[in-house]
Amino acid sequence: MNRDAKSKWECDRCKNFDGEDGNADEDSSSSEEDEGVQVSGDLKTLIKTVNEINMKVSKISAIEEQLVEMNTSMEFMNEKYETFIVEIKTLTEKVSLLEAQNIAQKNVISDLQIKVDRLEQDSRKTNIEIYGVPESVGENCYEVVKSVSGIAGKEVNPKSAFRLGPKVQGKARMILADLGSEADREMITKSAKGCSALRASALSSAWPDSRIYVNENLTSYRKGLLRNAKEIAKSKGAKFVWSRDFKIFVRMEENAKVIVINNETDLLKIK
């Protein structure tokens, strides 16, 4: 064996040993690389998971902030609602008080109106109203009243007599007369109701054969009551509505109870 061959010669054991170490190194290196790849993948997954968790935590935090804001808004609205309820209660109490005061004032006004009406009606207790007498130039209402009262049953000399109201073309104004006596006023108004001879033609042959009516001189308030009573009585089928001694009466039918109308409330009795 020459020198070169000797320097390169190795025994079988050494040859086998060198081969095994080489494979071991290769296996170790490959294993480390695999482990590095696996660790890198796990780290990315972990980071991704952590990021997702952070995003969810951020969303939860945002929701918590919204809930806090909603709670604050609800508390504010609740305070406003409570204030609103208190204000409504206060306003309701004020309205109730005003309604009570209004009713009281209406009652006072009604009482005053009745008292004033009584005084006004008392000042008219000797007056009569005559309707249906045609107007003529230069007429003497004083003489007309004497003639009308004479036809009705008793001629009286009035204290005063005149046409009342503005002239209306084609319509005779009423004559207002003060007889100066309650007894004469009562006698003439009663007898005139059933006096068929009391016609315009009986006063003058030039006048038409139309009916003349004699009524009590009611106040404006009582005339309104009488007018309303007639309208309601007609709608309810009442047969009789009249006035006597400055009072208004309604009777639904013959022999029925008489309803006395003293004020607006009494109109509700007509039914």
TrEMBL record:
Residues 60-129 form a coiled coil. It comes from the Eukaryota. Residues 219-271 form the FP protein C-terminal domain. Residues 19-36 have a biased composition (Acidic residues). Keywords: Coiled coil. Residues 15-38 are annotated as: Disordered. InterPro entries: FP_C. This is FP protein C-terminal domain-containing protein. It comes from Apolygus lucorum.
